[in-house]
Structures are given as structure tokens and as C-alpha cells.
Design a protein that fits this description.
The protein has 304 residues and is of the alpha+beta class. 45% of the residues lie in helices and 15% in strands. The protein has eleven helices and eight strands. Helix 7 crosses helix 9 (206-225), helix 8 (192-202) packs across helix 9 and helix 9 runs antiparallel to helix 10 (237-245). The protein is globular. It starts with a strand and ends with a strand.
Length: 304
């Protein structure tokens, strides 16, 4: 399975990968080499042992070596994600894949994310952080982390991946840096997505910690909503708790629904099979907590 997220043309004006495009005047350190060195001091070594073991096994997989967590932008019309669905003139998609046709017509760019079992979660959290940066609203997320019990235990091979206090501390450091960038460098907002890509792919442990964050939100929402009439008739609490807690265990429609109850986004989910006429499109948004929606995330799942 491959998951992609889409982006309209007006949001992507420059596809250069972030290197040193931003400068900030605040006191928060850049979470790059200096932060990596800081987090590898002896006090942190025990906390990161599980992450190191997990990463070594992940890198041993062929796909893990070849595919970044978050890929560069692709022109959606020329992306090989949809080539087999295109007619001979390479311009019009076959009518059997109507949602995909609309997707291609309404968007200019697409990002692939690594199909590692976390792909649905990474698509949501990557886009959500980008939305918060564009809205200059990261402070609300930072306040949540500081004042509420958001971070939960997430497991890999029956071991907790990372101590909750350390995960929370590092998340806040990265988010505070992004908050300063979003406010001081708003004229470069078209590069925010590339900055996030750089952090997810190249800051050691950052991808895993953001996956811990979005899975934690799903668990908090499960606790708050599983007895609600909207969910209790078809949601198996124990099954979904185990599924969400397990790193690299795939999410589904119900997990996405739970996520929209706790973070203010709607999700358009498009699924299709490359060589068949199967296709499905769903719009997911909160059913219980009628909070104001800050933005929308589009997720495409292609099954080979």
C-alpha cells in the first residue's frame, strides 16, 4: 500500500528542499545537528535504545533504505501513481476512477509517504502541523502538550518506544522552533512544507516522535468517545486501543474519525486499486465535538 497527500498549486510555489532558508531571532535552538548532539548525551541513551533497535531493523528493509519517510513534491498529472489509470492520450483518466479524476483535476502536486504501517498517521500529522504553521497556531498544540496528558505509551515489539517525558520534551522543542519560524518568516510560508519534510526525514527520531504524537491523540480520542452513541455500536474498544498503540500497525476509517474528534481538521480519503475499477471516496470530520475546522487533509491510498 502506498499513501500520498495532495497539495494545491497556490500552496506550493517553490520546491527547493529546506536547508538554510530561514533565520530566527528567538532563543530556541535549531533542532538540527546541535540538537541531535544534545539528545545523544548519556542521560538520554537508555531512553533511545528501543528507537535505535527499531531504526536498525527498519533500515535493514529494502524499502526502508530506498524511500524517505516524506517524499518530494511530484507533479500530480505526470506522477506514476496514476499512470496505469490514464487513457492513451495521457490526459484523461478512465471514468471508472471518478474520485481520482477529480483529484488530478483539482490539485497540482502530490507527496508520497513511506508505506511502513504508519503511512496514514504520518500523512495526517505532517499536514496538520503544516496547517498550524500557516495559521500561526502552533502555540495551541504546544499548550496542549504542556498542560494536558496527551502523550501515551506507544509500543514496538511489546516495548515502549520512548519515555513519554522525553517524547514530550523533544516535541515541544521542535514545535517551539516551528512556531517562531511561522511567525517571523511568514513571507516564506510556501517553504514551510519543505522545512517539515527536512525535519521528518533528517532529524534523528523526529518522525517517530511525531507518529507517537498522532497515535497518542487517537488514543485520547478513543478514551473520550468510545461510549458515545456515534461509535459504541461498532467500535471494539480493546481492539482499537491495541491497534493504535502498536507502532507500524495500519490505521483505518475509524481511527481517522477518532482523530478528527480531537484535532480540528477534516479528512478526504480516496482509495483505489491500480489495475481494477475499485474506488472509494469519503469525507471524514468530527461527529461529536463540533469544533471549528482549521483545514482539510487529502489522503490517497493506492493498493497495487
Amino acid at each position: 500500500m502506498q499513501v500520498q497527500t495532495t497539495l494545491s498549486a497556490k500552496k506550493q510555489q517553490n520546491q527547493r528542499i529546506f536547508t538554510n532558508e530561514f533565520s530566527i531571532s528567538g532563543k530556541v535552538e535549531r533542532p538540527f545537528k546541535s540538537q541531535e548532539q544534545k539528545f545523544q548525551q548519556p542521560i538520554y541513551i537508555d531512553y533511545f535504545e528501543n528507537m535505535k533497535s527499531m531504526d536498525n531493523q527498519r533500515r535493514a528493509r529494502i524499502q526502508g533504505i530506498q524511500i524517505p519517510f516524506i517524499n518530494d513534491f511530484e507533479d500530480i498529472k505526470s506522477s506514476d501513481c496514476f499512470q496505469e489509470l490514464q487513457s492513451q492520450d495521457d490526459r484523461t483518466l478512465v471514468s471508472a476512477h471518478y474520485p481520482v479524476q477529480n483529484l488530478v483535476l483539482q490539485n497540482q502536486f502530490i507527496r508520497r509517504v513511506r508505506g511502513d504501517g504508519n503511512c496514514m498517521y504520518s500523512s495526517v500529522i505532517f499536514n496538520y502541523i503544516e496547517i498550524l504553521m500557516m495559521k500561526q497556531n502552533l502555540k495551541a498544540l504546544i499548550d496542549d502538550l504542556q498542560n494536558k496528558n496527551i502523550i501515551q505509551d506507544i509500543y514496538w515489539n511489546k516495548l515502549v518506544i520512548l519515555n513519554k517525558a522525553i517524547a514530550k520534551q523533544r516535541l515541544i522543542q521542535i514545535l517551539e522552533y516551528l512556531d517562531i519560524v511561522s511567525k517571523e518568516q511568514y513571507e516564506k510560508s510556501h517553504l514551510f512544507s519543505n522545512l517539515l519534510q527536512e525535519i521528518f526525514n533528517n532529524i534523528k527520531g523526529a518522525y517517530d516522535i511525531f507518529i507517537i504524537l498522532i497515535r497518542s491523540y487517537a488514543l485520547v480520542s478513543l478514551e473520550e468517545n468510545y461510549q458515545n452513541q456515534q461509535y459504541k455500536d461498532y467500535l471494539d474498544y480493546n481492539q482499537y486501543k491495541e491497534q493504535i498503540q502498536k507502532f507500524e500497525e495500519e490505521g483505518d476509517y475509524i481511527v481517522l474519525s477518532l482523530i478528527t474528534e480531537i484535532i480540528p481538521i477534516s479528512i478526504k480519503l480516496i482509495q483505489f486499486e491500480q489495475k481494477k475499477a475499485f474506488q472509494n471516496q469519503q469525507t471524514i470530520q468530527n461527529k461529536v465535538n463540533k469544533q471549528k475546522i482549521l483545514g482539510s487533509v487529502q489522503i490517497v491510498i493506492r493498493r497495487n
